[in-house]
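Co-fold these.
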Amino acid sequence: MNIRGKAYIMGAFEHPTRKAPDKSSAQLHAESAKGALADSGLTKEDIDGYFCAGDAPGGAMSMADYMGLRRLRHLDGTDVGGSSYILHVGHAAEAIATGKCSIALITLAGRPLTDAAGSGARGGTFGARPEEAFESPYGGTTHNQYAMCAMRHMHQYGTTSEQLAWIKVAASHHAQHNPNAVLRNVVTVDDVLASPMIATPLHRLDCCVVTDGGGALIVTRPEVAKQLKRPKVKVLGAAEAMKGPFGGYGLDLTVSAAALSGPRAFDEAGVKPADIKYVSIYDSFTITVLMQIEDLGFCVKGHGGRFVADGNLISGTGKLPFNTDGGGLCNNHPSNRGGITKVIEAVRQLRGEAHPRVQVRDCDLALAHGTGGSLGTRHAGATLILERE
Amino acid sequence: MSDARRPPAPHANAETQRFWEAAKEHRLLYGLCAMCRQPHYYPRCICPHCFSDATQWMQACGEGEVYTYSIMHRSATGPYVIAYVTLTEGPRILTNLVDCDPDHIKIGSPVKLIWKDTDGDGTPPLPFFTLT
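Predicted complex below.
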């Protein structure tokens, strides 16, 4: 049994705000949900499945109550950091395929910019962690933990800061066409290298932005999708994986959970990396993108640096157009979690509704992948393969 | 290189009490499984490799080498170095490299264990590493 073709993404909405001092986080969730419902042509009363993660104030129960979701038959509050919402699409497809719900809502929203939670803070929603006393004293942050992955990747494979910088350059080429993007100026490799060092070897421009915001998705069963007026985006395959130090013996920081989730998702979808026309790749940092591209099989392991260089990720000129909304590196990173915007831009591409300057021609097959948690310690990977129908 | 950060005292629990008691004697313990013979860190009562409960507390010799590191510049208390050190006994452990010039650190550099006091009276110290 698999989920291939058993569910469709029929609603997608990205909240336009990037700073929201005048709104609550719950409100941003609800506004995102309204936007996705309007996009799909469905109403709140149609929703019988709800999916959210650690950013949902009070969790699934409080948010379902806040929004008045009275008809829920299925709830899922799985939190795997920023990859949660990509995983949620797969879980929603599973629930739909087994008849547990018909129309699922997924929301993400938060105000890290307004609330000055900043970036890089770990924990919070996760409670008392068993590794706490052995890791927390050492000042591990998102920045320096991902930086350690980059440092090791450079050592092991000869990857350079210039190559990593090309990932930001490509994102900026896309963001110039997105009026909502926080960073709309096209940058050069030299600009990235000249930006302040944050955690060696990562510069400020190797890091994603911090923004408020949100997003939501509607996933439905095929019979519902057929009755709606929007272009149909079929869920072809989905997979998730988790990777941690697992006791530190044999720890390899150059490989992400994408190496596990990617092949499973491709297998379920019945397609190969070479078939994919567009990718949304989680871009908390440039190194995140590079490792995931390798681990998903778009190039040989260790060759990611060469692969991303020279504009190869830029839509229209490169071989693998990525994050055409500008991604987390330039557009937004609501609630410090970029998973949902990865799915939303993939949906836009498959519908042919991306900005004309970045729309991929004949975009019939797309992949979205997210990494949640920390690549440098323990993280989840979620891969989603979508097809235009 | 600033070591002005005085680390907070670690919270011991029933499972890790023994680790922190040994730390007070400046002994670094790791876990070794009597069944699969594989080491792990942080130490647990159930082996994360084979799930046996025959884990043993072993004392590390205190030597190792840098697996990877990063000099953290985005810090209110000055730059510091976070690293994974591969212990001679095998596990890679998250730590800081202290009391040395960050510019001299390389992947593969040999390092040795040093202990730093934490906040409070009679609290266990924390294991750190420095270049040899």
